[in-house]
Structures are given as C-alpha cells and as structure tokens.
Design goal:
There is one protein chain. It contains nine helices and 21 strands. The chain is of the alpha/beta class. It folds into two domains: 191 residues, 2-enoyl-CoA Hydratase, Chain A, domain 1 (Alpha-Beta Complex); 125 residues, Immunoglobulin-like. The strands form six sheets. It has a six-stranded mixed beta sheet with strand order 1-2-3-4-6-9, covered by helices on one side. Strands 11-21-20-15 form a four-stranded mixed beta sheet, with no helix packed on it.
C-alpha cells in the first residue's frame, strides 16, 4: 500500500521515466479520435469528444491532438469520453490538460470509460457521470504481464494527489483492482471516497443543447430521446428507459425534470392537472409548476421554448444516507386533450450537506 506521496519535480520525473515503459495499452483497438463536435457559443461551452483506445504508439500524437483543440478554446469546454482506456501515461496527460484549462468531463449514459480513460475523466474541474455510465479503475500492470506495477501505481497516486484527491482511501480505491479486473465507480463510492462527481443524463432538459452535437457520434441509446419534451402522440416516451441517478440532501428543493407537449415545435400544452407519486420514499415530496421548456424534434432543437411543467423535488426528515426508486406521473391538459408523462429516478438521499473534497 502506498502510504506517502512525494511529488517534488525531480522525484516525479524519475518516477515517470521509470514507469512510462509499463503504461502500455491492454488490447488492440481502434485508435483514439479527438473531435471538436460543437464550438462554444455565448450560452454554452464547446463540446469535445474523445473516443477509442489510448495506444503506446500514438501517445505523443494523442496528447498533441488534444492540446491543439484545448488551447484554441475561449472558455472552458465539456469533454465527453467514450474509451476502454489503454496507456495510463496518455490518460494522465490528458487529465492534466483538462484540469489546466478548467474543462468539465462527462461520461454519458451506457458509455464506457475505463482504465486510462477514467484517469483522464478525473482531471475534470467538474465531473459528470450518467446513471448507467461505466467508469472503471484498476491497478497498472508491467508491460503485457499480469503483475501489478508498484512504481506505476505510485505515479497514479501522485497524479491523484496533484488533482486534489488526497484521501488515501480514494487512492487505494482507484488502484486496488488487479489489472485483469475492474472497480466500477458508483455515485455512493464517489461520495464516500471524496471523488467529486455529479449525476446527469442527456435526456434532461438542461443538457438538450448538447444532444445534436453527440447524436451522430454516440450510439443512439447513449443519447436517448428528446430531453424533457414529448411530441403529440408519443405516449410511451419513458417506457424502457433506465432510471436517472439523482442525488439530494436533506432540506433541498431541486429541479427534477421538465415536461411539455408540442406538435413540431408548435405548443399544445395548456394547464397542469396534478402530479402523483407512484413509488417513492416518504422523505421525498413533489410539486408541479408551470415553466418554459426547451423542446426538440427528430430534426433538431426547436427555435424557441414552449410552455410546460417543471417537477420539483424536496427532501425532508432524511436521517441517514439511503437509496430509493422514485416513480411519478404528471398530468396536464393539452389542446388535443388530457395528457400524462411518467418519470423514473434512482434517488440518493443524504442527511446533511457535506462538501466532498476533491
């Protein structure tokens, strides 16, 4: 177990020189691609997508490609990752660039980001993970041998310390799985070990702006249906959809989701009729209020917001950390008649506000 980390420049240089030869990719795969899929606007940051495996042969090219995109950003970007990992050196270098530029990192629903990719994800100034995102960590290995490389793990530990992840338990958590295995990150573990992360989904209304940029680049199931909006006649929008992970602290009232109905961007929503909790813990209560909602069709985002309903959730009397399913139905009147939508969430509830240390 690594008990003490010395991160002086000279020692780090020696460790990196010694360990770099061991940070090889674990399997042959498609080379990494770095794409600026959406440029920044006055309202939103740029979206960068990293896909594919980090190979030892392309490590300098990969870092150079990402640096070229990063240095030309006028404001911090969001970096989406979809990679099985590979060369740990590359993952850490990408993470350092991400942190240096104040970028946010995100792994979307059902997308994989493991090994070296997960190290890059840790570099985010803010980190987001989808409800079904598969973010995995394991120890470094020696070349193509299955043995754990202690020197390489020391470098990884120093890298985490550099990012502000100083809890020894977190460092052990990231490197405890053998190279042929994986520790899969959960939101509960992230909070427990001080790895600051936020849950999200591209189906949420606040992320609808990013979907057109990612729609053709991630498999369709990763992107999901239009966030928060329902076209007339689409009564099965939520069927089969995995619950979105959502965290809330005792005493908080937060926006859970927006809903609306429209016909090719023409608003047909009229009035709210009510909201019902079909399944949920007693600590949570819901309220439905009128609002303006971003909407979209299969052709893209609607040019203006349309009337809809926002669902607010409040947590009270939470005395211990717990996890529960929340399913609700919101009912409203449209120009075409009565309508309803359902929402499914996996709720993480906490008794008090504790700032997670990075």
């Amino acid at each position: 177990m690594l008990c003490r980390f010395v991160v002086g420049d000279q020692i780090m240089k020696r460790l990196l020189t010694f360990a770099a030869g061991f940070f090889l990719s674990h399997q042959a795969a498609q080379a990494t691609t770095f794409s600026l899929v959406a440029d920044e606007t006055p309202e939103h940051p740029a979206v960068i997508l990293i896909k594919g495996q980090f190979t030892i042969e392309d490590k300098n090219k990969d870092v150079g490609s990402f640096t070229t995109i990063a240095v030309n950003r006028k404001k911090p970007a969001i970096v989406f990752l979809d990679s099985p990992g590979g060369t740990s050196w590359t993952g850490m270098q990408l993470g350092r660039i991400i942190r240096r530029h104040g970028f946010t990192t995100a792994v979307a629903d059902d997308t994989q980001c493991t090994s070296a990719c997960a190290l890059a994800w840790l570099g985010g100034n803010e980190r987001f993970m989808g409800a079904n995102a598969r973010i995995g960590f394991h120890a470094a290995k020696s070349n193509d041998k299955p043995e754990i490389n202690g020197a390489a793990n020391a470098v990884i530990g120093a890298y985490l310390y550099e990012l502000g992840i100083t809890d020894t338990r977190a460092i052990v958590y990231v490197t405890k799985a053998p190279p042929e295995s994986m520790t899969w990150l959960t939101m509960t573990d992230a909070i427990t070990y001080g790895i600051a992360a936020k849950s999200f989904s591209l189906v949420q209304d606040q992320w609808v702006w990013a979907r057109p940029a990612l729609d053709s680049r991630l498999p369709r199931k990763y992107v999901g249906p239009a966030g928060g909006s329902v076209s007339a006649g689409d009564s099965k929008r939520d069927s089969g959809q995995a619950p979105i992970l959502f965290s809330i602290k005792n005493g908080e009232t937060l926006l859970l989701r927006n809903h609306t109905s429209h016909s090719n961007c023409a608003p047909i929503f009229e009035t709210i009729q009510g909201i019902d909790i079909l399944e949920g813990p007693p600590e949570l209560s819901l309220k439905a209020e009128p609002t303006m909602v971003n909407a979209s069709t299969t052709s893209g985002e609607c040019p203006r917001q349309v009337p809809g309903v926002k669902v607010m959730v409040t947590a009270t009397h939470v005395t211990e950390q717990k996890e529960a399913t929340l399913i609700y139905r919101v009912r409203y009147q449209t120009k075409s008649g009565p309508w309803q939508n359902t929402g499914r969430f996996r709720m993480l509830m906490f008794p008090e506000t504790k700032a997670a240390s990075e």
